[in-house]
Amino acid sequence: MAAALSTDPTDLREETQLSAQQSAVARMSRAARLLLNAEHLPPHARTLLNRMCLPVTALWCRVLRFDPSAPDWPDRDRFVVPSTTMLPLLRAMLRLTGPATEAALPLEYGRHPAVEVAPGLAGQGVAAAVGMAFAEQTLARRFGRSLVNHRTWVLAQDTDLATGVAMEAAQLAGRFGLDRLAVLVTPPAGPDNGDFADSLTRFSASGWTVRKVDAGNAAAISSALAATLRARKPTLIACLPSAPGHALAEPHLPPEEELTGPWSPTARRGATTRRSWLRRFARHRLRTAFEREIQGQRPALFEEDWHRACHWQMQSAEGHATQDAGLAGLRALSELLPELVCLTAASAYRLDLAAPVALPATQQARARLLPAEQSCGIQDHGMAGMLNGIALHGGLLPCCAASMMTVDRMRSALRMAALMRRKVLYLLTGDGLALGDGGGGWQPVEQLASLRAMPHLAVFRPCDVRETTACWDAALNWQGGPAMLLLCPYENQHGPLPAPAFGTPSRGGYVVKQEEMRQVTLIASGPEVAIALKASHHLARQDIRATVVSIPCWELFAEQPASYRKTVLGASGLRVGIEAASGFGWERWLGEEGVFVGMDDFGTSAPANALYERFGITVEAICEKVRAHLLTSGAERGSSLRTPDQPRTRVRGPLTTRP
Amino acid sequence: MAAALSTDPTDLREETQLSAQQSAVARMSRAARLLLNAEHLPPHARTLLNRMCLPVTALWCRVLRFDPSAPDWPDRDRFVVPSTTMLPLLRAMLRLTGPATEAALPLEYGRHPAVEVAPGLAGQGVAAAVGMAFAEQTLARRFGRSLVNHRTWVLAQDTDLATGVAMEAAQLAGRFGLDRLAVLVTPPAGPDNGDFADSLTRFSASGWTVRKVDAGNAAAISSALAATLRARKPTLIACLPSAPGHALAEPHLPPEEELTGPWSPTARRGATTRRSWLRRFARHRLRTAFEREIQGQRPALFEEDWHRACHWQMQSAEGHATQDAGLAGLRALSELLPELVCLTAASAYRLDLAAPVALPATQQARARLLPAEQSCGIQDHGMAGMLNGIALHGGLLPCCAASMMTVDRMRSALRMAALMRRKVLYLLTGDGLALGDGGGGWQPVEQLASLRAMPHLAVFRPCDVRETTACWDAALNWQGGPAMLLLCPYENQHGPLPAPAFGTPSRGGYVVKQEEMRQVTLIASGPEVAIALKASHHLARQDIRATVVSIPCWELFAEQPASYRKTVLGASGLRVGIEAASGFGWERWLGEEGVFVGMDDFGTSAPANALYERFGITVEAICEKVRAHLLTSGAERGSSLRTPDQPRTRVRGPLTTRP
């Protein structure tokens, strides 16, 4: 599997032969080393960076498809540096190859075009790189190798490889056969107790080619890079520390000024490659489509087509649950947007509520959402990391389907998508008190609050088919971050809801059922809107006027003008929040005297309706709470019923927390 | 590595020889199969359960240390079934071995004593089992093999092994040499494209012994189980589907009634083993300590000793940051509680703020928190899963130190601890706008809200050394769930805070600085309390009376009587929340007209003080907001300054969201 280390002195002959090509590498490597040594670095980082200097220089000088004058050229090789430790090497490469103006930019994601990914927790960059390679593979299939013909290189650390997310992503890379992905890595600077070697074996077992090279041996590095270009699998190049004798084998050539800047081998090669790419691009038959997708624009007439396709798909959907509607929307989208890439986790298929256990992998084929979906099995976290990479690559719209419960696993990748402001669509199935048999471990409680707390993420929790369509629309139009649809596998208990009485779902919150002179506002989302509607009918029979509000998306609703929010939520009267989830954060809409009807504990094993009863999320419980509250507040003020919709003198009562 | 499959017909002779011992296994397996076939199961589950029937019966009949009459005996073998799919096999075993009363209990965690873990996402049960084996190893070192001499068996699914958390936990099991851990697994029921074989190789690369056996061959299973008992490494037993001929080799014996219930081989062997254990236990010199720890009780005079040790350790702590104080508390605790087990993640050591990068593994030795800590490297998620297992095992108090940022990775394991109501202590370092260089990926924003939303979890965010001690106290006394201390590596900007003016930190929230006739209440937590105090001094110079409140623990504060909360937060006046985190959920304390000063975006790369300024979490910004708000609300009512601490007529204003 691994190339033999060329520690043989007979290699010297070959080295002399190659020296014409390699002297440039050796000189640039030396220049990079001088730059590195000028930086203030902790000792272990210095060791690692110096060790990786020759392999990385060889890559940049002779292989990397990178034009320093156009660092965001779509067909460039992606050089991913996921940790701050390794960034000085990228800085050195950019200094040596690029114009001085670029070198002066801070080396941060979003500020320097050559930084492909923001640094984060170990392993996330490897998963993102898998996504980039996947995006390349997908685009190459559509546009051909004349337009899409690049590779993804990762300068990783040993700790990256040992994380769960990297191991999951590595399995996915092996499964998808991403042969244009290569990870360069070196063992830790200190003593290593075999963990590094174990990581290599694990990658090898995940369908990777693992090559070990002497990090100080230019010829070995050169042949490893050449072999990587021919590889049929993703490649891991382990750059091992040089034997002491070998470290000195590098020719001592002075750094030459003409090797840096636009005269560097990288710059010359990159400029030539890009020019010929531009010529091919200019006369390519799919040029317009490629341009549109790279720029992330919608096709012409998308809005009309989308509504038509959506309507058609919704009609042909089997059920009326939001989950059916959401997946129908996905199918409609996949017909219109060739750039849509859908990854699905095995957990997404936990649809079959009658069966007491999860569907097996073999039955998934039956339940496929889309003809073109890519199954990611159980590797939810690796999949979420990949989605980021697809979004970072550009040219594709990444989307995934997974179970609501696995969002905890995907969270650290999701956060990076939000932080880097990339558009990723998440369809989370199995929301609500849905899967009664699996115990509390399969019932979302605090997930909803924890997602709403994340900046730049839009969370949609639609209640019926109409709202699901509106939420799909809003999710597609959500700018600057990921968007998420939480979908419930149950039929709506109420049947089709009435048309909005005031406002629209696309504004994040609206009035479903308006009562003149409202005494109570019932605020709900998702499956609980139907319960709220039923409760309002019950209350009406008792002469209590209850308006029903649905807030499918807090983020959008919070963006609306205060006057709109006030009209929807009502200027006065009791506010009751109803959601089969933790009430954390609901005070924002309920105010201090509001009542929340939801879950303050984890779920348990029971059929769904029994769970709604167990947690008191029922029409009867809501009506009871409303009556009790109205009586108390009426008694306080000495009248039996308060004058509705009038500002009133109010003593700030005791703070209600999760009533 | 793997035992050869005995498909050789010459084995039949050996089988006849062994049949005296194995006829019981064969008969019980047949009885179990009848029970399984009587259940309503989806087809793939039926295939898997039938395949695992013989291996599991062999384990229960001949190896498992389990007394059905005392299923919670501390020295029992742990038989972990982490998925609902495999539970019917456990139910069959319990039916065949135990008394009828036990068999009638629902097979759920917390309701049936033989259920060791609640089902959840794939892989979490494997990680918990690693923790149980770790707990056994730790307890055996203290109490010797005469008291602690059991094993942990896991009945896993193929999907469990492919998850990141299982692979991380597998690495940890290999690193800690948990030779008393064995995982039984079988390939998926449908076609498998090599993923299962890859999983085996990955486990083998993580320091496990992997044995492949024919699931229908009793002799092969028997020898694999015997080899497992002698193993020096954790073992994975892959039970492969039988060759068609072999499946029939099982002797067709009728199920016999005398093999079930208390007369079963398991019950007889278990009762004998437990009786002799009880005899050894009765005269063991560490009997009292063992009993105390298994029951989770504190040693006598713990309170006084703890305060003394804590005081001493705090004094000898190097700095005055809460991180130093928190770790000093941990050292104090480790002196007093021999049952304390501390796992540390490499991320916990990101202490050195001067260094632009994380500390390398080699420098960790220098920074060790405790002499007895166990380093879990980069495998945070696997570590969190292990902590659950340690807590589930009993007899130990699991604790971990990790970086605040990695909590997203640990979240799905943390949730299981909260769901199962197990006490696990988390010390999270690097809280606050602390690590300026790593970019937004290393700065917590929404983590705090997402943790506070989780039921049964207590989150403590102390502001100084005194509060840290109180929070340690409260965390130790927190019942029925995990507790978490968020620790900041910075020195408190204000220096030592004054003594509480009203209330105590142990009640979750209290008044740090009281002003008579308060106009403003500044509510903060953690490092921001110092900023709030400075702001109150500034405001005092402008004749604005601002009381400062610290809420280190929302969960505890919410549990206090409403009158206490009202006195602390003030009956009226402007409330300002100050926290270097997302404001999600703060409306609970601020009310509708409150103002929140915090972060509405992810962090970025900058020194910490620059970040405080960038996000406007400064004394000046707070004072400016307070003045502006007081002026506006004053103008509204036609007077320049409102009468403080008096209920006032108030028009419900526009809803403020994240101002």
Automatic annotation (TrEMBL), chains A, B:
Per the entry, which co-factors are needed?
thiamine diphosphate; Mg(2+)
Keywords of this protein's UniProt record, alphabetized? Magnesium, Metal-binding, Thiamine pyrophosphate, Transferase
What cellular-component terms does GO give this entry? Answer: cytosol
All copies of the Transketolase-like pyrimidine-binding domain together span 320-493
Tree of life domain: Bacteria
Q: Which GO terms describe its biological process?
A: pentose-phosphate shunt
Keyword Magnesium set for record:
yes
* Catalyzed reactions per annotation: D-sedoheptulose 7-phosphate + D-glyceraldehyde 3-phosphate = aldehydo-D-ribose 5-phosphate + D-xylulose 5-phosphate
Give positions of region: Disordered: 1-21, 635-659
Give me the segments passing through the membrane: none
InterPro entries on file: THDP-binding (IPR029061), Transketo_C/PFOR_II (IPR009014), Transketolase-like_C_2 (IPR055152), Transketolase-like_Pyr-bd (IPR005475), Transketolase_fam (IPR033247), Transketolase_N (IPR005474)
Q: Name one GO molecular function term.
A: transketolase activity
- List the Pfam families: Transket_pyr, Transketolase_C_1, Transketolase_N
The family line of this record is: Belongs to the transketolase family.
The name of this protein is Transketolase
Q: Which organism is it from?
A: Acetobacter persici
The lineage, from the top, is: Bacteria, Pseudomonadati, Pseudomonadota, Alphaproteobacteria, Acetobacterales
